Amino acid sequence: MNLKVLALLFISVSAIFVPSALLLLSLIFYLLFLSASFHKVRELLNLGWLWLFVLFVFLTNFLFFSFTRAVFFTLRIILIFLSLNLFYLTVSPNEFESVLRELKVPFSLIFISTTAYRFVPLIRKDFEMVRNAQRARGVSFKSRNPFAWFSLVVPLLNVWLQRAEELAISLECRGFRNN
């Protein structure tokens, strides 16, 4: 069984159930140390717009609850993002599938998980393609204009929905049913 896959899955799941902010902070440092061994620190911390979500979580919890709760939930979200990003950077889809098979996970869940896992690089590629196309049309994303980002959302949703429809048709043609 692949220990790397199990460790990363354990860290991701434990972030949801850890009761202490100090433990969350130590797990974040563990992840950074682990990623340093894979020489992936720059890619690990390159989460782009997700840092805005982290800021939103912090501000929302700070304004409506308390500072300690804001820190706790922010650390939890950061740990989940970092561990999942490290997971995607270091684990191949075949490794992931083999670990799930060894754990005796039902085939339908293995298929769904590995299919979603294989779509992550495609989603990143689509995002870059649409962003470059919009830049070529003169859209500037540095101005923090929300309408500029809206020009990304509509084409991306169109591409992703087309891809999902093609996958559904392909699965139906091969006799894969949801029973």
Task: Please specify the SSE layout and strand pairing.
Elements: H1 3-17, H2 21-37, H3 41-45, H4 50-64, H5 67-90, H6 93-102, H7 107-136, H8 146-173
Helix pairs in contact: 1-5, 2-5, 4-5, 6-7, 7-8
Number of domains: 2
What helical percentage do the residues reach? Answer: over 70%
Distance between the termini: 29 Å
Number of helices: 8
Largest sheet data: none
Please compute the radius of gyration using only Cα atoms. 19 Å
Which key phrases capture this entry?
179 residues, 2 domains, mainly alpha, single chain
How would you summarize what this structure contains?
The protein is an all-alpha fold and 179 residues long.
Textual characterization of the structure:
The chain is mainly α. The protein has two domains: 3-91, no CATH class; 111-173, no CATH class. 80% of the residues lie in helices and 0% in strands. It contains eight helices and no strands. The chain has helices at 3-17, 21-37, 41-45, 50-64, 67-90, 93-102, 107-136, 146-173. Helix 4 (50-64) runs antiparallel to helix 5 and helix 6 (93-102) packs antiparallel against helix 7 (107-136). The protein is globular. The model has no long low-confidence stretch (mean pLDDT 77).
